[in-house]
């Protein structure tokens, strides 16, 4: 595994045909791996008892104005990766039980760790537009490959959630939602911090040449996913992944505050990449992770 990580991190020279074939394989890997990740995560949330028909959120509130008591009663806590709604055992305004939160967080942690490890030697095992964009921002990924990766991730998430609706006889897929009393701007900052944590750890364990755990770094990323899910699950759903939020929103038709789950992770991931490489990477002469047009 250590050799596979080193091969990916270091630059390499290949003829254009090989690079083209490698690009196709990498994009397909992102498609398959993201599909499996979203399918596992969303189905785990649904199995935990999140059966929704319609969200209970009122119309969007101003970003910083205080909520009235009546408005607070209408707000809801997300069930880690979903919203409380009809058929749920959690009532509006109540936090999700820690046992349920932990179960869904563990499912995401295990899936992320295993799938990132499985795809690391093919595509880098991103499974997440925030990771892909962060790699592009620091020159580790070409713009073309970035676009292809993100497109594959969004398609995979959409297919996974549409399939889940079919397999569950039309049950609406849970969407990420802001917790009771959480403003969009507060949720945005939470997602920025959670995703910053994810990418900062990724850089420290995998991309930093001094790391002593690079061989198992991809597997360990699942731990920070699980920890962040426990930390932010009852506030924003702890998305950290625009693709993970996109599929459920598309399948359910609920786009409430969806922009939070794009802007937050993209900002947090890119900021982590800039901060870590600017302040903590000693050897800054390393080449981009992937060369070529794709």
UniProtKB/TrEMBL annotation:
<dbReference type="InterPro" id="IPR022357">
    <property type="entry name" value="MIP_CS"/>
</dbReference>
<keyword id="KW-1133">Transmembrane helix</keyword>
<dbReference type="InterPro" id="IPR034294">
    <property type="entry name" value="Aquaporin_transptr"/>
</dbReference>
<feature type="transmembrane region" description="Helical">
    <location>
        <begin position="219"/>
        <end position="239"/>
    </location>
</feature>
<dbReference type="Pfam" id="PF00230">
    <property type="entry name" value="MIP"/>
</dbReference>
<protein>
    <submittedName>
        <fullName>Uncharacterized protein</fullName>
    </submittedName>
</protein>
<dbReference type="InterPro" id="IPR023271">
    <property type="entry name" value="Aquaporin-like"/>
</dbReference>
<dbReference type="InterPro" id="IPR000425">
    <property type="entry name" value="MIP"/>
</dbReference>
<keyword id="KW-0812">Transmembrane</keyword>
<feature type="transmembrane region" description="Helical">
    <location>
        <begin position="98"/>
        <end position="125"/>
    </location>
</feature>
<feature type="transmembrane region" description="Helical">
    <location>
        <begin position="146"/>
        <end position="167"/>
    </location>
</feature>
<feature type="transmembrane region" description="Helical">
    <location>
        <begin position="259"/>
        <end position="282"/>
    </location>
</feature>
<feature type="transmembrane region" description="Helical">
    <location>
        <begin position="31"/>
        <end position="53"/>
    </location>
</feature>
<keyword id="KW-0472">Membrane</keyword>
<comment type="similarity">
    <text>Belongs to the MIP/aquaporin (TC 1.A.8) family.</text>
</comment>
<dbReference type="GO" id="GO:0016020">
    <property type="term" value="C:membrane"/>
</dbReference>
<feature type="transmembrane region" description="Helical">
    <location>
        <begin position="187"/>
        <end position="207"/>
    </location>
</feature>
<keyword id="KW-0813">Transport</keyword>
<keyword id="KW-0677">Repeat</keyword>
